[in-house]
Amino acid sequence: MKVIDPVCKMLIEDKDAAETSIYKGITYYFCSKHCKEKFDKNPEIYLTEEPSTSLTKEITFKSSIHREDHKHCPKCGHASKPITPAGSQAKVEWTCPMHPEIIRDAPGICPICGMALEPKTVSVDEKENPELIDMRRRFWISFVLTIPLILVTMGPVISMPLKKFFPHELMKWLEFIVATPVVLWGGLPFFVRFWQSISSRNLNMFTLIGLGVGVAYGYSVVATFMPEIFPPSFRKNGEVPVYFEAAAVIVSWSGA
Q: Membrane-crossing residues (predicted)?
C-alpha cells in the first residue's frame, strides 16, 4: 500500500518504509531515519499542515526506492526519476465562449452558434489551437486571391478599367478560376457550420455566411456557364453580371 511520509511528503510503499512511528494509535511510515527523528520531536507540526500545501510539495523521486534527495538509488546506482501520482493531471473541459452551458470533453463546434469550443482552464504549456492555425492559413491564401477580384470589379472606380483590356467572357472565366478555391477551400469551414445550423435548426451567423457565399457563387457559376437562360432584365450592357468577388470577400472577411 502506498503511504505518504508525513515529514518530507514522499510517496512510499508501507513495506519499504525505513522507519515507523505510532502516534495517537496511528502508524506513520518514513522513508528514512532522519524523517522519523524529526517527526518524533514534534508530530503536531507535520500533522496539522494543510493538505493542499503538502500536495504542492509532492515531487518524489524513485528508482526501486524513494529518495528525499534527487540523486541516485542507493541499491542499484541508477539515477532517480521524478514520478507523478496517478490522476494528478486535471481533466480539460471545453466550452463555448458565447454559451457556457455547452461543455464537452474534447474540442469541437458549439451546436448553438457554431463557434469553436475553448478550454475552460488555460495552462501555461497550452499549445496553439490547431483550428486557429488552419483558419489563419485559409484566411491569408483567400485574402491574396481576393485582391485581384476586387481590382477587376472596382477598376473603373480607381481608374484601373481592366475589363477594357480583356473580353468580358474571358474576365468571367478568370474570376471563376480565382474565386473557386477561395469559396470551396477557404470557405469550407463556414459551409460545414452552415449545414450544421440548418440540420440542428439553430440558425446563427454561419447560416447567413453560408447563404450569402452560396448564392453569390452559385448564381455566378450559372451566369458563366449558361448565360443564355437569363432573361434580358438580368443583363447589363448585354452581359449577365457575376458576383464572384462578393463571394470571395465574404469568405475572406469572415475568416479575418
A: 139-158, 170-191, 203-226
Averages of pLDDT over each 10 residues, the chain, 256 residues: 79 82 85 83 74 42 45 49 48 78 79 78 63 88 92 66 66 92 94 90 90 95 92 84 93 83
How many C-beta atoms lie closer than 10 Å to residue 169's C-beta?
Answer: 11
Please give the C-alpha separations between residue 29 and each of 3, 23, 38, 48, in angstroms, as whole numbers.
7, 11, 13, 17
Residues contacting 153, CB < 8 A, separation 6+? 245
Distance separating alpha carbons of residues 97 and 107, to the nearest angstrom = 13
Reported as type and span, the H/E element at residue 255 is helix 244-255
> Can you give the pLDDT at residue 185?
95
* Residue 29 DSSP label: E
Note if the pTM is more than 0.90: no
CB atoms within 10 A of CB 130: 9
Phi first, then psi, for residue 22 (nearest 5°) are -110, 120
Helix/strand/coil percent split, the chain, to 5? 50, 15, 40
What gap in Å lies between CA 138 and CA 66, rounded to an integer? 52
- CA 128 to CA 17: how far, in whole Å? 44
Grid coordinates of 75: 541499491
